[in-house]
Amino acid sequence: MSDPSSVVNAVTARIDAFADRMREQAHPYGADAQRFVETAAGTLDGGKRLRARFCHAGWAAVGALADSGATEPDALWDVCAALEVFQSAALVHDDLIDNSDTRRGRPAAHRAFEAAHIAAAWNGDAAPFGRSAAVLLGDLLVAWSDDLLEHGLRGHPHAAAVRDEYARMRRDVTLGQYLDIAEESAWIVNDDADHAERALRVMTLKSARYSVEQPLLLGAALAGADAEQHAALSAFGHPVGIAFQLRDDILGVFGDERTTGKPSGDDLREGKRTLLIAWTRQAMAAQGRRMVDELLGDPGLTPDQIASLQGAIVESGALARAEELIAQCSADAERAVADAPLDARALVDLRALAEAATTRSA
């Protein structure tokens, strides 16, 4: 199955069927529980299904080498679906942490709960209710992702390897998320020379490994990858994941709201201490760094102030440096699988997927 839409459709069908079961199970618990579950199901709509597609690609690279006529097992679709549900959980919590108002052009979960509280004329302060409900929504989605994973792994010969990889992914994402919020506060007491290394560590744990490398390894583990195949896919996935997150950081500063679904410069308003920012500050004199530090993280940044920060990033060479690293990462990934014992046709699809992930505009 090399048609990307076929993979997306298969994963979406598995998610939809699971969501329908969750709706049915919530029915006896009353209207409030039903609305909560419906909100959780709503977060699963749309998206590029990137992690599921990398998981499928990892399975194909190993499974198709052993059997060119192999068809995708049900377990693969459950693991792919589990990744997408976990991604929804991460986005709900991420929007809450970042105090974001929108997600994919719609109100972020905590804002939607806040609005629902107001519309229903419930007692108390709507904003804390929205935040609390969003925490629980993310927790429910994490539980759902585990349900899907465990359903797929029942009786599977490689269940232990898949569980180990999935557990590591969950730990890494959580550590990365903490380091991300810590850096927004801790940067002021750390040496400027260390900021880039710290930003790269956050990027690796929070997004790069989780978005590309670990989904690839999950699919490969499900197909029974040996140590050499595991190492090759890891060496491919890690630089592609770095390039993917760098592209995400660029879009967070320069992206078009009409395609990203989030306001232009949103990462600047949220004060994200990304590699772009670290490189920008490295290239500036003390006065320029003070300007960046004073503006970064101000939720009320005006369009002119955002333009000023964008200009500083460009003039410092940080944007060009990021594009160069993306190209370097792509070359490193290609070398990693050049002579690897992986299915040649699956690698064609994997390369195309990696290119799409690192050159996207949304």
Automatic annotation (TrEMBL):
Any one Gene Ontology molecular-function term assigned to this protein's record: (2E,6E)-farnesyl diphosphate synthase activity
Keyword Magnesium: yes
Keywords, ordered alphabetically: Magnesium, Metal-binding, Transferase
A Gene Ontology biological process term: isoprenoid biosynthetic process
Cofactor annotation: Mg(2+)
Record bears the keyword Iron: no
One Pfam family it belongs to: polyprenyl_synt
EC code: 2.5.1.1, 2.5.1.10, 2.5.1.29
Family: Belongs to the FPP/GGPP synthase family.
Name of the molecule in the record: Geranylgeranyl diphosphate synthase type I
Species this chain originates from: Microbacterium pseudoresistens
